[in-house]
């Protein structure tokens, strides 16, 4: 009787395993969507220019960068599920405190809690997936994790735009961001049983061993540098995309939200396309090609005078970004199998560093120059990322690499 009950409980947990990870990754996207969509409204509230308000994303990414390095150490020693839960709690606290911010400084401070939470959630979901799923099942699961952020952007854009219309930019924090984090906490508690969340990097393994292996691998370093460069360009593009279309093409908030929903759909399509292509092609090759086309699309989107042509190009950026991100996750996960928690935390740190550079660089350029110049610079950075990955990264399971 007792054994049967335990078996039923285990089956229930296994059914909720992927939904728990999916919902956790889902929570990491809406906060950035809110800032991107409502930069102008936040600026009006505090009497600041768009380029200044955009530094919320830069500071958040910087905090996430620092937190990711710390997480790369913690992941070796501590239970991954517990770290995941702590990340969700921090994001929930961020949603509450941001909604009551009385100054731009406090908004930046409280929003940074979201970055710390995301620094915990992102690598832990990937590590847990990689440790317990293999082959095509793992590739499909990673694809769904990436799609979760796209789904979050679709739902988030609609919900945030609607809720902001009912009140102001503060309401979405309480009425959307807070509930999704609380729901994810429940799913993680029920869906990731402790007996399958054994941290394989713990025990007597020295914490710095992971860093030594990673720093000794030219391919691993190339993956991290490529990730930093690609995140710089794509991150800078995404932070200022909606504002660019609202200021240059004079579109409404509703149309901007529609465009961002299109972004999310294209990322999801790109991710699923990559899952299928990875059965036949190397992750390195897919990542390289996707970054080349993404860079050309970024450059064109910020320089095309026609609204709809520029919007289609922006969607192409996101489609190729979906392919690139899926390929980058897969290739990086394969680099150091014994220290997946460590390298995926560094992967998250590289993404954060890139986003920090992209948001900061974008703000500086917009204060001094224009969107056209920004598009050219971001496009060139993306092409440099493609070159780095193609020349120096490779899959440990592949026999053909530079």
Describe this entry's structure for a reader.
The protein is mostly helical. Helix content is 82%, strand content 0%. It is built from 17 helices and no strands. The chain has helices spanning 2-15, 17-26, 30-37, 39-46, 50-53, 55-77, 80-99, 104-132, 135-166, 171-191, 207-215, 218-248, 253-277, 283-301, 307-333, 340-368, 371-392. Helix 2 (17-26) runs antiparallel to helix 8 (104-132). The longest helix is centred in the middle third of the chain and has 32 residues, at 135-166. It starts with a helix and ends in a 10-residue tail after the last helix.
CATH superfamily heading: MFS general substrate transporter like domains
Uncertain regions: pLDDT < 50 for 5+ in a row? Answer: 1-10, 196-204
Alpha-carbon distance between the two ends: 59 Å
Instruction: Please report the number of helical segments.
Output: 17
Mean pLDDT: 86
Instruction: Give the helix proportion (percent range).
Output: over 70%
Which second-level CATH architecture applies? Up-down Bundle
Order of helices and strands: HHHHHHHHHHHHHHHHH
- Mind telling me the CATH class? Mainly Alpha
Question: The CATH topology is what?
Answer: Growth Hormone, Chain: A
Radius of gyration from CA coordinates:
20 Å
Morphology call: globular
Tell me the domain tally.
1
Strand content: under 5%
**Strands, total number:** 0
User: Structural class given helices, strands, pairing?
Assistant: mainly alpha
Largest sheet: none
């Amino acid at each position: 009787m007792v054994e049967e009950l335990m078996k039923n409980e285990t089956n229930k947990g296994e059914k909720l395993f992927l939904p728990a990870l999916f919902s956790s990754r889902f929570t990491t996207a809406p906060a950035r969507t809110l800032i991107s969509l409502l930069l102008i409204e936040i600026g009006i509230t505090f009497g600041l220019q768009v380029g200044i308000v955009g530094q919320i994303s830069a500071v958040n990414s910087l905090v996430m960068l620092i937190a990711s390095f710390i997480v790369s150490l913690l992941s070796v020693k501590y239970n991954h599920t517990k770290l995941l839960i702590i990340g969700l709690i921090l994001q929930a606290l961020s949603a509450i405190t941001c909604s009551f911010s009385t100054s731009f400084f406090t908004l930046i401070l409280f929003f940074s809690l979201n970055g710390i939470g995301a620094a915990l959630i992102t690598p832990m979901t990937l590590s847990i997936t990689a440790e317990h799923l293999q082959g095509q099942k793992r590739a499909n699961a990673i694809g769904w994790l990436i799609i979760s952020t796209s789904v979050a952007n679709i739902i988030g854009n609609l919900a945030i735009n609607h809720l902001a219309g009912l009140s102001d930019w503060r309401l979405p924090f309480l009425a959307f961001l807070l509930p999704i984090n609380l729901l994810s906490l429940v799913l993680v508690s029920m869906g990731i049983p402790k007996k399958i969340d054994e941290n394989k990097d713990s025990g007597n393994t020295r914490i710095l061993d992971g860093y030594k292996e990673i720093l000794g691998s030219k391919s691993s370093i190339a993956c991290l540098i490529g990730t930093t460069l690609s995140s710089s360009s794509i991150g800078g593009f995404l932070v200022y995309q909606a504002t660019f279309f609202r200021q240059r093409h004079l579109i409404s908030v509703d149309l901007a939200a529609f465009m961002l929903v299109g972004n999310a759909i294209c990322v999801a399509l790109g991710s699923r396309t990559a899952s299928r292509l990875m059965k036949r092609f190397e992750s390195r090759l897919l990542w390289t090609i996707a970054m080349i086309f993404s860079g050309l699309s970024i450059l064109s989107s910020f320089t095309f005078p026609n609204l709809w042509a520029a919007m289609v190009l922006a969607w192409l950026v996101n489609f190729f970004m979906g392919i690139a991100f899926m390929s980058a996750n897969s290739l990086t996960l394969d680099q150091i199998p014994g220290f997946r928690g460590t390298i995926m935390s560094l992967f998250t740190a590289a993404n954060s560093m890139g986003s920090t550079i992209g948001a900061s660089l974008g703000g500086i350029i917009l204060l001094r120059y224009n969107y056209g110049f920004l598009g050219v610079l971001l496009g060139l950075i993306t092409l440099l990322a493609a070159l780095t990955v193609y020349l120096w990264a490779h899959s440990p399971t592949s026999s053909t690499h530079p």
